[in-house]
Amino acid sequence: MTPPTEPHLPHSADEAVEVAREDARFGIAFLRQRWRRLLLAFAGLLLPLWGFGELADDVRDAEPFPFDAPVLQFAQGIARDGFDRAFLLFSKLGYQWGVVPVDVVLVLGLAAMRKLREGLFAGIAIIGSALLNLGAKQLFARERPTLWESIAPESSFSFPSGHAMGSITLAMVLILLAWHTRWRWWVTVPMTAFVLMVGLSRVYLGVHYPSDILAGWAFSIGWVVGAYLLVFPHRQRPWQPR
User: Fold this and answer.
1) Which of 76, 200, 214, 225 pairs as cysteine with 44 (C-beta 3.0–4.6 A)?
2) Is a pLDDT exceeding 70 seen at residue 242?
3) Which DSSP state fits 34?
């Protein structure tokens, strides 16, 4: 009976060194080709999801965040009629007056242009973010702040912020679609400012804790970057011919 074949093992120190060199060359070549995607996966997917997990653990355990109450009290202290109007506007633009209509136009517009991969990415990111927000609110069931009576009260749960998730989802979709074009910074700068103002408006109006906003941003960034890496595999970028 023929004995089973044993796996090949290096028979000398020189052969072992050569195998190690080949492995190292392969690893270096892999990193050179894909370091950008690895960096995007780490900074845009793993870190945000880790941050969301840390916030979610404390919310689940009903542990207060030391920065929530002071930031809300500061927002109440600077309240003025002019600020009321401005932040009410950004709050509405962050959902029914701005983000939702733009989401619909973006997905339908990409489909009409036959940009199927881009439209698929936008649809997965936007619809998935909305569903994740609904599920997370029911899961954590965090009550909204009650430090004062808001001029724009809300009745749903607080964690994570739907306005924060919706606005940054749209921003991240547009930024990732524009990143390899000449419109990169023309999209990134105003959308970043818009996301910040929407988040600030929800705290100013007293309907969200700052931790709700941070959790919404982190959750959505991780989701959108994950969808991007899934829909656009290695060497595939938005707007390339199919």
Assistant:
1) 225
2) no
3) H
Contact (Cβ atoms closer than 8 angstroms) between residue 45 and residue 229? yes
pTM for the whole thing?
0.88
Cα 182-103-108 angle, rounded to 5 deg: 85
Is the predicted pLDDT of residue 10 greater than 70, yes or no?
A: no
Q: In the prediction, which pLDDT does 7 show?
A: 53
**Residue 162's Cα: distance from chain center in Å?**
12
Residue labelled with tokens 């990134």? 188
Of the chain, the percentage scoring pLDDT greater than 90 comes to 74
Dump the DSSP string for 196-209.
HHHHHHHHHTTSS-
* pLDDT tens column, 18-49: 777 776 676 677 667 777 888 888 999 999 99
Closest CA to 141 of 235, 212, 227: 212
Asked whether 91 and 152 are in contact (CB, 8 A), the reply is: yes
**Amino acid making up residue 162:** G
Token pair, residue 205, equals 């109006």
3-state helix, strand, coil in the chain (%, to 5): 70, 0, 30
What does 77-146 look like in DSSP terms, one character per residue? Answer: HT--HHHHHHHHHHHHHTTTTTHHHHHHHHHHHHHHTT-HHHHHHHHHHHHHHHHHHHHHHHHH-PPPP-
